[in-house]
Amino acid sequence: MTLHPTVVAVTRRIQERSAATRGAYLARVDALAARPPGLRNMGCANIAHAFAGLPVADKLRIVEQRAPNVGIVTSYNDVLSAHAPLAHYPELLKEEARRHGATAQVAGGVPAMCDGVTQGAPGMELSLFSRDAIAMGTAIALSHDTFDAALMLGVCDKIVPGLLIGALHFGHLPTVFVPAGPMTSGLSNSAKARVREQAAQGLAGREELLAAEMAAYHSPGTCTFYGTANSNQMLMEAMGLHVPGTAFVNPGRAERELLTREALRTALGITRQQRFTPIGRMVDERCIVNATAALLATGGSTNHLIHWVAVARAAGIVIDWDDFSELSAVVPLLARVYPNGDADVNQFQAAGGPGYVIRELLDAGLMHGDVLTVRAGGIREYTRVPEAGPGGLAWRDTGASGDGDVLRPAAAPFSATGGLKLLAGNIGRAVIKVSAVPQDRHVIEAPARVFDSQSALHQAFAAGELDRDVVCVVRWQGPQANGMPELHKLTPPLAVLQGKGHRVALVTDGRMSGASGKVPAAIHVSPEAHAGGPLARVRDGDMIRLDAVAGTLQVLVDEAAWQARTPDTLPAAQAEDNAHGLGRELFAGLRRNALSAEQGACSWL
User: Fold this and answer.
1) Which of 33-47, 63-77, 347-361 has the highest mean pLDDT?
2) Of the candidates 341, 268, 300, which has an alpha carbon nearest to the alpha carbon of residue 102?
3) For a Cys staple, 228 with which of 93, 329, 413, 514, CB 3.0–4.6 Å?
4) Total structural domains in the chain?
5) Whether 235 contacts 308, CB under 8 Å
6) Is the full-model pTM beyond 0.90?
């Protein structure tokens, strides 16, 4: 299939823009890959320290037989339901390594926080930068330099991007990502959302709300909505970093253990064969474009317009929101998964899942088919579905969509364009997730109500002050101001206002959850207010026009008067509060050094 000309043009532009940084990165990768294995360069005391805790037979394999040694980086904790199944993975992987004459060691653990736990609380202000902490933790784990390959165990929002950024700084190592899969379906996401909206109006009490939430989030595994965590898994498949079809197999199914063991065998295959594909070579400009296409085709999380910019930078690749926007104009929306539809990820998987989406995009010329992956068969292997059989794992063709309300072919999509849109105007540059927003809400023009915090908006809602057409502006929520927390707690009150028939929108330099959707939200406004962005000039009563059709975001104020305004500044008491408590002091340097959202909010460049 011939590649779509826009895919060709965007890829070429990224390659040209990244020529110097990518070239320098690959030179470093190749230099490290060309060395003798780190173990061969170590002193005897170094070697003894590295393997003192291993069983005698494993020491023999590594030191005398020079068998491959695989480093495991795990984000296990049992606060995150998605990561709880990872508890037993290391022993499983070590056992599988021994079966094949190799060894595996847990190189290190990385932190993993749950945005669902910290939403609306001060701890959420650590969330975005936990990605960079995870990347640094990954680097520390691999810094012992005793590994021939690596396995990355993780699933959720900041964890997979952090693991990937860290792994790319060890780009000379073959690396396979190992997830745990989604929980089985509980209370539907749409039913849960209805109870949240009732609670926001005082029509449901805490007991009823808690029962609904616990019926939705009820067992080990990833949450079942198509938010950032599950978007991560879709992107890992599209980048060829998983064993094919691994993303959405539930914990406890027979395929889950078989796929985990297969990940270890896949890593060993890369180290032992001539098909040497270290992760730094695999994640190239084409791979990044493939990930973007998969994100757009499935209406994935807006958080990836930050995270994948940072991921690309870790591989020496420079992308920006214009690249996402141009691809969104030609990549059709193939999936309807909550919040972009009623289905959850288990229904998405049953309908064909990632394999269906990847096949349709490849056949339509919207993904590069010639990329490297962790498998010898290339990206086409990722169009198949794994099944457990008498002889172990087998893969079958995905076939036609199992549910036309969930997955459609590229020839008859839900929408001819992708789920994300770039907005630009005198407020700055922002993004909006349009795939879940009703068509009649793609253009909103209404007076602004300006808030300095999300709690202030909640107070105004409770007081009945927002019961009208309104564009709620929530500022001082960017990376430098307070770490750019998600503002998902704003979704229920704004949805209530929209449900009453009011024309409502949100404009903010903060983030919304990957699960947010039906209320128009211009998010990630860059530059942020705290960095001198024009959002700091907006005043109560200003008319704001959010136009997702034209791609504009404007304050309808006379230009001379607009430029003459003195920008507001972050209130001193709020700045002081942002800086202290629940560990926020430790992140001061990251906030100070953070780049803009469009630059990936990177704290390490």
Assistant:
1) 347-361
2) 268
3) 514
4) 2
5) yes
6) yes
